[in-house]
Amino acid sequence: MADEQAWLRAETGGTKRAFVINKPDVLTALVKKANHPLIIAGHEVTAPGPVGDTLIACIRDLSARSIQVVATAHTIHELKKRDISPVVAMGVMDIVQRLCDPDWKGFSDTGSYDLVLIAGISYSLCSVVLSGLKNGTPKTVTLTLDPRYHPNATWSMPNMKGTTWEELLHTACRTLAE
Fold first, then answer.
1. Residue of 175, 167, 157 lying closest to 54 (CA atoms)
2. What is the pTM of this model?
3. What is the rounded CA–CA span in Å between residue 64 and residue 31?
4. CA distance 39 to 140
5. How many separate domains does the chain show?
6. What is the DSSP letter of 133?
7. CATH number for the domain that contains residue 88
8. Would you write out the chain's pLDDT as a tens digit for each of its 178 residues?
9. Helix (H) / strand (E) containing 70
């Protein structure tokens, strides 16, 4: 278990907490091990500044590995402008409902997802999403890419300062793109 504290302390529910990703090799190994991963890209990935730029670069590198990207809300147009082709645009709660449906075969009709990477969703909404996935799809590994610790994920970045987080994510995503 992690020694990290939730970015918002009220968001810690239950006794099972996320493992911390503190090295690029951990993120790289988790993505390489996955058979059918999915990226959920929230509105914060298109925010101007280093956080948005880092998340976009990482998503671009991951999508080069043929990992499907789902755009939430209005992000589909911004992702396309940045050379990322989402498979669909839909609300995050709709995505979670589909992921929790044991009969749903995914966007490509090839089966359920074993790894869900989440980036750019506001912290409080992401906490609810991760709680739903933790309880509704216990075999699915969830991983957050944001620089804030999410205890309801399976794996999460710790609460990190910008440059440390950017370096970790850039290193891992560049390695995966090679």
1. 167
2. 0.91
3. 13
4. 13
5. 1
6. H
7. 3.40.50.1220
8. 445 655 555 555 666 788 999 999 999 999 999 999 999 999 999 988 898 999 999 999 999 889 999 999 789 999 999 999 999 999 999 999 999 999 999 999 999 999 999 999 999 899 999 999 998 998 999 999 999 999 999 999 999 887 999 999 999 999 998 8
9. strand 68-71
